[in-house]
């Protein structure tokens, strides 16, 4: 029963992640943590791979269908910065994890941090029309912003998620749907670097292989369905879906925090 729930979570999280441009890890990570069946490290690894599978499909499909609105210059610098920041975030995760006698306590730290980030994202999304935006073009500036994104996303094990959208809105004045595509592209670059680093350093945690394969396949399938839905709804509906999702994530974070402490 738990395996079926994990597979369904991977699918629906990937559908929503593709529609909103948040990758899906911000849903998968806290929801699977809530079951307490696997270690925090294992869930982070599985979540990252599922997000990688979905974003790879979504970005390549958009390119092949000539539907891509990715700003390659800006988003590539952001992605490079996020990839480097992701490596630093992994080191930060290991440091925090080793500082506690109970390894699961890091899950409480992640839950609290994710709650704060999600709350800030929700508030910004609600009031973004009143907040002046910017048009950062400098490559160094873009890479520095991406670096900060990567550190936070990697430490939280969410692959980017809603943080990317806020950054793209505020620093680059992107509209909702272009921001979603660019966010997936940034997540793709950072997740590739993260997976390679994990493999090269020999830090791949133990995980259930058959379940993992099923979840990755559902990540790709979620990307297929999410792209189709995204074409049929407007930006206003995407924003409403995004806000509703943030409320759910905050609720799960609260549950995880009290479960881990």
Features:
single chain; 261 residues; mainly alpha; 10 helices; globular
Written description of the protein model:
By secondary structure, this protein is mainly α. It is 80% helix and 0% strand. The chain has helices spanning 2-20, 25-35, 40-64, 72-98, 105-127, 139-156, 162-172, 176-200, 209-232, 235-260. The two termini are 26 Å apart. 46% of the residues are buried.
Compact overview of the structure:
The chain has 10 helices and no strands. With 261 residues, the chain is mainly α. α2 (25-35) packs antiparallel against α3 (40-64) and α3 (40-64) crosses α9 (209-232).
Radius of gyration: 17 Å
Helix and strand run: HHHHHHHHHH
Overall average pLDDT: 91
Q: Could you give a short account of the major beta sheet?
A: none
- Indicate the proportion of strand residues: under 5%
Shape: globular
Class based on secondary structure composition and strand pairing: mainly alpha
Give the N-terminus to C-terminus distance in angstroms: 26 Å
Uncertain residue ranges = none
Give the helix level as a range of percent: over 70%
